[in-house]
Amino acid sequence: LYAALTLLLLPAIWGVVRNAPQDVGQWPDGDDAPPRDETGGEQATWTPGALLTEPRFWLLVVPVGILMGISMGWVTHIVSLGIDLGIESVRGSAILGAGGAVAIAGTLCFGFLADRTDRRMLLWLIMGAHVVAFVLLSGNESAAVFTAIVVSIGFAGGGIMPVYMALISQIFGQASFGL
Hints:
Helix 3 runs antiparallel to helix 4. Helix content is about 70%, strand content about 0%. With about 180 residues, the protein is mainly α. The protein contains seven helices and no strands.
C-alpha cells in the first residue's frame, strides 16, 4: 500500500520539488543576490573519488558516523535498560518517546545555531553531551535521572543532522550538500 501510494504521489512530487531556489528564480533565505560562498572561493564540484581522498571528508564523516551509530544503538536498547532499572516497559517507551519529541526541538535549536555560530564547536558540543550522558547513564539507578538523561540525549541527538549538513555545506560548498 505504501509503495502504491508513493508511486501515485511521485509525479506530483516530481513536479513540485526543486533542487535549488535558483531553479525558480529565487535565492536561499529570501536573499536578493546569490549567497556568499563560505568556502572562500569558487565552489568545487566534488566527485566521490575526490571526496574519498580528502582528509576533511574523513575528519567529518568518521565522528558523525560513530555518533549516528551510537544514537541508533541507544535507541534500540534504552527501554531495556529502563526495565532493568525497574521502569515499566510502557513508561520506558513513553520516556523514549519524550526523548524523540525533544529531538525535534534539538533539531530546530541546533539548526538555528548552525546558521549563526561555529559549527565545529556545535558538533563538539553534541558529541560531548553524548559522552557525559552515557557516563551518567552507566552509573545511574534512578528513574528520574534516567528520564533526564534520555531527554538530554534526545535533544543533543536532534542536532546531529543540521550541524552535519551545515558543515558539509561550509567545508565542501553548497553544491556538494547532497553528496
